[in-house]
Structures are given as C-alpha cells and as structure tokens.
Design brief:
351 residues; alpha+beta; five-stranded mixed beta sheet; 11 helices; 16 strands
Length: 351
C-alpha cells in the first residue's frame, strides 16, 4: 500500500509531520538528517515530485508511508490512518521536535471568541443528533458502569466520530443554520470548517450541562489513554480530555465547564470530579451532583455557587476521591471548595 497518487497528502507533509531536520533545498526536494542511521549531515534525500526518499549513507529508502512507518515502527495501513488523522486535523503526532526551518514557517493562528451559551447548546444538540453510540461503548456503560439503556439515552452519551466524518458533520450543521464559529471543537482547515477529532481522541462523548440544563462542553472518555512520549510505562496516561479546538485557526478553547446533574434547587448538592462519575452517582442515588474538571479547577464552580446559593441550596458536600487524604493537590482543592462555599453563605461538609 503506497499508491501515493491517491493519498490526500504528499511526502512533504510527512517530512514536517515527523519532524525531519531539513539541511538544504534542492531542485526537486530537500536533504534532511537521517532518522534511521542518525547521520546529521543531510544525507537523506526526499524527492517532493516523485514522493520517495533515500539515505545516501545507510541506503534506507521507500515511499511516503514507508517513511512514517519506519520512524514509528508501525504497519503501512496504520501509517496511512495516522497520517490522515494528523494532516486533516492539524495534529502533530511525532514526539520529535520540528526542524528550525519548519518552526520558522509556522503561521500564527487566530482563535475565535466563545459563542453564547444558547448558541453552543443548539449546535452541540444538533451534533449529537448526527452521532450514534457504538455497541461496545453501550456495553461498557451497562456492565462496568451499571447504567440502564434509559439512563444512557437520557444522559445523551454518544461515540466520537471518525476523522473522515468531521467535515461532513460540520457542513451539515452549517446547512441546518447552526453556528460553529466560537463553539469549542470546531475550527477552520484550508478555509473550511471542521471538527477536531482523530483516532487518538476516540471514545465516549459525555455532555457537560450548565445550571440551566444547556450543553456547555463535552468531556471525552478515551478508548486508549493518552501518554506523553517521556512518560514511563507504568503510568496509565490521561483517560479524559475536553473537546477543544484551542490553538487552531478560528478555534475555541473548551474552558473548564462545571457539569450539573439533578435538581438545581436541591437543598444538598454534592461536588465531585468528572462528568461520568457525577452522572453515575446521580443515577444510583437520585441526588444532585456538580462535576468539576479537576480538584483545583474551581473558577466555574464559583459561578455555580453564586446561582444555587440564591435558589435554595443550603449544603454542599465535597465528594472528591479518597486520595484527597494522601494527595496534597487533591486535598488542597477540597479545602478550597469549603472556602468558596462559606463565601456564599452555605454549609459544607466532607464526604
């Protein structure tokens, strides 16, 4: 599999994607350092016209996919998928730094201001209507999380779309009259609007809702945790991320929205970490939960406290994980919640 004429990318894209250090230009391409033999004299010739490469020192050679596959020790089919993911979504998947020449040519991006809450809710709701929940994701929510089909459907869980559907989903939303500019997750690529998804961010969509019940963002429970290249193998990696298009042209940051599930006028509201945890706890107990993105992510929580302190809530129960008793940062966040609660005249206790 290396029929480059049919690819939606060229070898120049891959050169920048994997971070080859370009030493000099030539008529039909560039000479770079070789990632295979380690020679740093610019012996690897990349032909931009023929979409091939060859190192004049170690004799390694091949086409577009071979370049990526050999560097990342993967198959040609996996290389094709990963390159598509990265090129079409503007994601650099290489752990190697870009060359100085490549970095110098990087154009700055302009982000969009966040759209209004009603606009974001309308766009996200319409987007969910276009998505399904995969069988394996539903089974996980059944067997591991203990949720019923009715609860799963009511909470609005969906599976993230594959990268090749991002542009068509976005175009359909625009065609229906919805706004995508200023909605986290949407951005412009080559002048066209699309969604920021790839195989690395595949998982379950978890809608985060504000005090009015509007969808304000999405946390994604990843199928495969994300790990940085320098992390040791015994670390699990990030299990949850937010849908965001920060750092992309006309993109928008997710922020750190607070998720509220249950009766907004409840006399007692529990505060925990993570959208899914709050949803499950609510379904199992019937109680009202507020979920924050992290133990010390309290900015949006104060906005919630301002509202619920005026609508009948009397007690906030801090319900962080038990590691608050051995993790200094989690304990610090739990203590900060108590201070916020007292600021707005409510009582607080630790669960």
């Amino acid at each position: 599999m290396d029929q480059s004429a049919d690819f939606p990318f060229c070898i120049e894209d891959v050169v920048h994607l994997v971070g080859l250090r370009i030493r000099r230009q030539c008529g039909d391409g560039v000479y770079t350092d070789c990632p295979f033999c380690g020679d740093n004299r610019g012996k690897l010739k990349v032909n931009y016209i023929a979409n091939v490469w060859r190192c004049n020192y170690c004799q390694e050679s091949g086409g577009i996919l071979h370049l990526y596959a050999k560097i990342h020790n993967t198959s040609l089919s996996s290389a094709y998928r990963e390159i598509c993911d990265a090129i079409m979504n503007g994601i650099v998947v290489s752990s190697k730094p870009l060359s100085q020449e490549s970095s110098a040519n990087t154009r700055p991006v302009t982000e969009s201001p966040r759209a209004g809450a009603d606009v974001i809710h309308a766009t996200y709701t319409a987007m969910l209507d276009q998505l399904l929940l995969k069988k394996e994701h539903r089974e996980h929510l059944h067997t591991v999380r203990g949720l019923s089909d009715a609860e799963i459907d009511r909470l609005g869980f969906r599976s993230t779309p594959p990268f090749y559907m991002c542009r068509s989903i976005t175009e359909r939303l625009i065609g229906l009259g919805h706004t995508v500019q200023g909605v986290p997750g949407f951005y412009q690529k080559d002048g066209k609007w699309t969604l920021n998804f790839c195989s690395y961010t595949a998982g379950i969509f978890l809608p985060a809702r504000d005090v009015e019940g509007r969808i304000s963002g999405f946390q994604i429970r990843l199928d495969t945790p994300l790990k940085n290249p320098d992390e040791t193998s015994d670390k699990p990696g990030a299990k949850y991320i937010w849908l965001s298009s920060s750092g992309k042209q006309n993109g928008c940051s997710s922020g750190s929205p607070v998720h509220l599930i249950g009766d907004r006028n409840a006399k007692t509201i529990y505060v925990t970490e993570g959208v899914l945890k709050a949803d499950i706890a609510h379904c199992l107990t019937g109680r009202t939960f507020a979920a924050i993105a992290g133990a010390n992510n309290l900015t949006s929580l104060e906005d919630l406290f301002k509202v619920i302190s005026r609508t009948g809530t009397q007690l906030i129960v801090e319900a962080h994980d038990m590691d608050k008793y051995k993790n200094e940062m989690v304990d610090k966040g739990a203590s900060a919640i108590r201070q916020l609660v007292n600021k707005y005249g409510m009582d607080c206790r630790r669960l």
